[in-house]
Amino acid sequence: MNWQQELDAEALLRQVAEQIPQALRPNVVVIGSIAAAWFFRDVSGTHSVATKDIDILLRPAIEAVATAQTLGQKLLKEGWKPQYPFGMAAGAAATPVDDLPALRLSPPDVEAGWFVELLAEPPADQATRKHWRRLNTEAGDFGLPSFRYMPVAVHAAEDTQFGLRVARPSCMALAHLLEHADPDRTPISSLHGLPPRFTKDVGRAIALWWLAGQQSVTAGQVWRQSWDETLTALYPGHTGEMLAAARAGLTAVADYLRESHQIALNGVLAPHGTTLDAWQRAYASLLALIDQGANSNV
């Protein structure tokens, strides 16, 4: 299914929260475009965002599979429909875990135009970029993916009135940059021109930073403090090293600013007419922000 439309973040968070049993809500963090739209809803136009997937991270890692099975079974029984990319289908017991599709479920209302995708917090020893675990459901077997820097993305996620926590833009941006210190050059088959994965993900970090600057003149101070607290908590004694990795991730996209800008305009920045010049300035100022943080941790 290949739809894309502007969706209202507040309405979506409310609908998703209503489907998650109260006992499971402490295990759930909303990440991605909807989280960004929620945090920047006071910036003109950003109460809505162009997306089709609602990313839900399940934690802690040790309970993620059980939580996914409970939530997935509940939604399937209530008529939610699996969505399969590129002609895939649910697997069986003999299907290798790396060949299983992620569990993406759209609500019974076929006009809704969105689906929930389940992700997992990574195991503490995960070193690979992406790791899959098997998820058994009445509809077949699915894969539950985890990405190595997701703990950064969801660190100190904030509560909402819907009973769900939402990841902070500063932490999501940092996770994207760290992930691509070694750029993922896998082509994105769903996008025109097959751009490499890192152009979209690093571009998302730039987009979040641009929005933060539109929201507040103190964005730099807020982000530096957020990064310092997050890296100190998760990588004690290695803050400078991690900021260097984040810088490498950002510089990876230096020759792809036009492409990353276009991708962002079709996603999180869809409600805005952000120019390429403004995008380039945001890129430069984000690079300077990282350097300031690195210098203060020397």
Structure write-up:
By secondary structure, the protein is of the alpha+beta class. The protein has 2 domains: 5-151, Beta Polymerase, domain 2 (2-Layer Sandwich); 169-296, no CATH class. The protein contains 10 helices and 11 strands. The strands form 3 sheets. Strands 5-6-7-4-2-11-10 form a 7-stranded mixed beta sheet. It has a two-stranded antiparallel ribbon with strand order 1-3. The radius of gyration is 18 Å and the shape is globular. The mean pLDDT is 91.
Features:
single chain; 298 residues; alpha+beta; Beta Polymerase, domain 2; 7-stranded mixed β-sheet; two-stranded antiparallel sheet; 11 strands
Count of all domains: 2
Global shape: globular
Q: What is the overall number of helices?
A: 10
And the CATH topology of the largest domain? Beta Polymerase, domain 2
Structure at a glance:
The chain has two domains: 5-151, Beta Polymerase, domain 2 (2-Layer Sandwich); 169-296, no CATH class.
Which helices and strands appear, and what pairs or packs with what?
Layout: E1 5-8, H1 9-19, E2 28-31, H2 33-39, E3 48-51, E4 53-58, H3 64-77, E5 81-82, E6 104-106, E7 115-120, E8 130-137, E9 140-147, H4 150-153, E10 158-159, E11 165-166, H5 169-179, H6 197-215, H7 219-234, H8 239-251, H9 257-265, H10 276-296
Parallel strand pairs: 2-11, 4-7
Antiparallel strand pairs: 1-3, 2-4, 5-6, 6-7, 8-9, 10-11
